[in-house]
Each structure stands twice: as C-alpha cells, then as structure tokens.
Amino acid sequence: MGFFDKIKQGMKRTREIFSGRMDELVENYKELDDDFYEDLSDILIMADVGMKTTELAVGRLKEKCKSEKIGDPAKAREALKEILTDILQAEPMKLESPMVLLIIGVNGVGKTTSIGKLASRMKVMGRRVIICAADTFRAAAAEQLTVWAERADVPIIKQKEGADPAAVVFDGIQAAKGRHADVLLVDTAGRLHNKAHLMEELKKISRVVEREYPEATVKALLVIDATTGQNGLAQAQVFGEVANLDGIILTKLDGTAKGGIAIAIRSEMGLPVRYIGLGEQLDDMQPFDAKQFVDAIF
User: Fold this and answer.
1) Where are the alpha helices (DSSP H) in the chain?
2) Residue 132 belongs to what H/E stretch?
3) What is the pLDDT of residues 1-40, one digit of tens each?
4) What is the pTM of this model?
5) In 3D, which of 37, 76, 72 has the Cα closest to residue 58?
6) Which residues of the chain have a pLDDT value below 50?
7) 244: exposed, middle or buried (C-beta count within 10 Å: 0-12, 13-18, 19+)?
8) From CA 277, how far away is CA 268, in angstroms rounded?
9) Do residues 271 and 247 lie in contact, with contact meaning Cβ atoms separated by under 8 Å?
10) Is-contact 202 243, C-beta < 8 A?
11) Chain-centre distance of CA 94, in angstroms?
C-alpha cells in the first residue's frame, strides 16, 4: 500500500463524517452567506478542530473569499483545504546523529507501540537505534517495550521496576556511545496527576543527558491518543508546562472521527505533528505531511 493510501485508509472515519458533511454543505448552499459559515463552523467543531481554531480558519476563509471574489461554495471548500494545510505546515524535524529522543505521554496513549514503530522505521532508514526503558514506575512497562524492541530488532537498555529513571538513561547513554548509536529512544513516565514529580524527573533526565552526552541533539515528542479529541489538547497544554516539547506523535487515528485535533494542537499550541499512528503493524507509523493529511480528510 502506498504512503498516501495508508493515510487515506487510516483517516477513513474522520473523512466519512467530515467530507460527507462538507459535500452536503456545498450542495445545500448556492452562495457564501452567514448560514454557510455557521454550518461550516459546526462541521469543523464536530471533527474536533476546536472552537478557537475553527474561528481562525473560518475567519481566514471569509477574508480569502472576499479578497479573491470567491462566491461558489465548492471553490470555498478548496480554499479551506489550503488554509488548513497552511495552519498544519511546519519545518520537518531533522534526524541528527547522535540524537536523544525523549518520548512522553500518559499511560494508554500508545507510547510503547510508538517507540517500537519509530525504532523500526529508523532502523529501516539505516540508523543505529537503541531503546531505553526509563518509565520504571508503570508495571510491566519494560517487558512490553522489550517485546517491541525484539519486533523492531533493536537493543533495549532496562533495569528492574522502580529503578531511578535517570540511572536507566545513564546506562542508555553509555550503551549508545559504546555502540555508536545514531538515536537513543527514551521511554519516560507520564504521571500527570503529580506534575511536580514528573517535572523533577524530566529535569533530572535532561541533566544526565546534558552532562553525559553533550554532543547529542535532544528532542522531546509527546504521544497523544487521537480518540481522546479535545482531551488530547488539554494533555498537550499540561505537558507543555513541564517539558520543552518539539512536537506530537498522534496515535490511533484509524480509530477515530476526531482527526481534526491535529489542527487544533498545531494552531493553539504551536506544536507540529511529527508522526501519525495508523494501525498496529510495525510500519504503521508515518511521518506527518500536512497536505496529505488534509487531502485524506477531504
């Protein structure tokens, strides 16, 4: 299956609702009046684009249609595609070497599977990858990650449950140096019910990386479950307070009609979506492409 076909298939539920309603909107209106824009706003909000981002997108559409003298609803739909694509656009994240990727997220969002898929993807690209199991407080986290490491055929560094996460990261760094790894993928805890503890843990990990691996580029990606919709935006806001985030991994897009959350996170948080998860297979993690994403929704 081709790259776009996989995204298109994965976005099926979002597209069925969003695109179907857009088709009805275009058919039901002959001109762009207030009722048209109000119904359009409802469609965007129901796709979990969010109120603020919907107002932004519809406001830009009104200006564009006015300045370019667009009066046809079908042409307005095409203009909306351009606007949403523009909102989602971001400079791609470069994979440098050596690099430490801190993967953050609450339990149940697909953090473990995302790390396994990322490891597999990077290995296929020819990168030397090591996984570091630094979420030591969640029961069986290291065991689950080990299964994915084996599937991806990459080494994993771990300690016993309850160990100091920073100590595991220290071991991971030594292994990355010794084996000349390109990328160290670090699984970190995401206990949002105790923000102060989480912040201290992430700071401690960052200090260890800075001290032991100063030559490495460090990035932090937040994993969000697309099926949670606006709750995902709330998670991004809270994690943004405790970590310097470089982007989002959006998982379970194939199981939701709320794919518009990607647009809300980009617009309201300024955080680009870096990867999207579209299934359970190793190759189901795809780098995010704004144009293909919007085309798949429409």
Assistant:
1) 3-10, 12-28, 34-46, 51-67, 73-88, 111-124, 141-152, 165-178, 195-212, 230-242, 261-269, 290-297
2) strand 129-133
3) 566 677 777 778 888 888 889 999 999 999 999 999 999 9
4) 0.90
5) 37
6) none
7) exposed
8) 21
9) yes
10) yes
11) 16
